[in-house]
Design brief:
This protein has 98 residues and is mainly α. It has one domain: Serine Threonine Protein Phosphatase 5, Tetratricopeptide repeat (Alpha Horseshoe). Helix content is 88%, strand content 0%. It has 4 helices and no strands.
Length: 98
């Protein structure tokens, strides 16, 4: 919050404030905000350090997406297993009643 205000009101230090915002957001795993600040910095000037931070953030976002997909896939497998077990039990019950 303070750095955002400083970046708006002090044009002389804007570059540094935006870098600290990008780095800080990456450290607390707010990758979308960090990426936004990296891009804002790169609009001001080209910098290899910020480019590496941007690449790091993109890799971390990809990891988070992969984790989310793995969790969703695992949940779908569990749900499918429970559903299959329920259907098998229902068929078994119908066969015993005949």
């Amino acid at each position: 919050m303070i750095l955002e205000e400083l970046a708006r009101t002090h044009p002389d230090g804007r570059r540094d404030y935006i870098y600290y915002l990008a780095f800080g957001n990456a450290r607390i795993k707010e990758y979308t905000s960090g990426l936004k600040y990296c891009r804002a910095f790169l609009d001001i000037e080209s910098n290899d350090q910020v480019r590496s931070l941007e690449e790091y953030i993109k890799k971390e976002i990809d990891k988070e997406v992969a984790k989310g997909m793995a969790v969703a896939g695992g949940a779908a497998l569990v749900l499918g297993g429970i559903l299959g077990l329920g259907i098998a039990m229902a068929r078994n019950k119908q066969k015993r009643e005949k």
